[in-house]
Design goal:
Elements (H helix, E strand, L loop, with lengths): L4 E7 L4 E4 L5 E14 L5 E11 H10 L5 E14 L5 E14 L17 E2 L32
Length: 153
């Protein structure tokens, strides 16, 4: 079986970085990804895709990325089930990031907008130690981005 996702999109908001109860850093981001084809009105539609990054990837997202920045994500699609406060059962789908490449640096202080650190991969983390789903202490994914904010594209 193959479960491999590759996305290029812009961050809808700054990364939401938290720590699990066991001290593992986790970042949740939402990517705005344009569809390849135009709709009947001649406009490109956009999908908002939730992505989760763990450990070093979460640290790098927090340190270097902000709303509107362009990134590439490689990973796998995972589903998780949870229950709302009202007792309704829900399923969330998220991309678990294995590798993230920063494609847009903008005017990061001290960089001149040109340089970037080398891409990072979690290949050095043994598979048995990387979480396969959200821990219970991390809240469920939101239904979509806030409509009050202007989208970064």
């Amino acid at each position: 079986m193959l479960n491999h996702i590759v996305l290029i999109g812009r961050l809808v908001a700054d990364p939401d970085v938290r720590y699990t109860q066991s001290g593992i850093q986790v970042a949740k981001i939402c990517l705005a990804v344009d569809r390849k084809f135009k709709n009947a009105a001649g406009e490109r539609e956009t999908d908002f895709i939730n992505v989760v990054a763990w450990r070093k990837l979460a640290e790098l997202l927090e340190k270097y990325m902000k709303k509107g920045r362009l990134i590439a994500v490689q990973g796998s699609l995972q589903s998780r089930k949870y229950q709302t406060k009202e007792g309704e059962n829900r399923t969330a789908y998220e991309v678990q990031a294995d590798e993230i490449k920063f494609l847009d640096w903008g005017d990061r202080p001290g960089s001149g907008g040109i340089s970037s650190p080398p891409p990072h991969t979690d290949a050095d983390v043994p598979p048995s130690s990387s979480p396969s789903s959200y821990p219970n202490e991390y809240p469920p994914a939101a239904a979509g981005p806030d409509t009050d904010d202007d989208l970064p594209f």
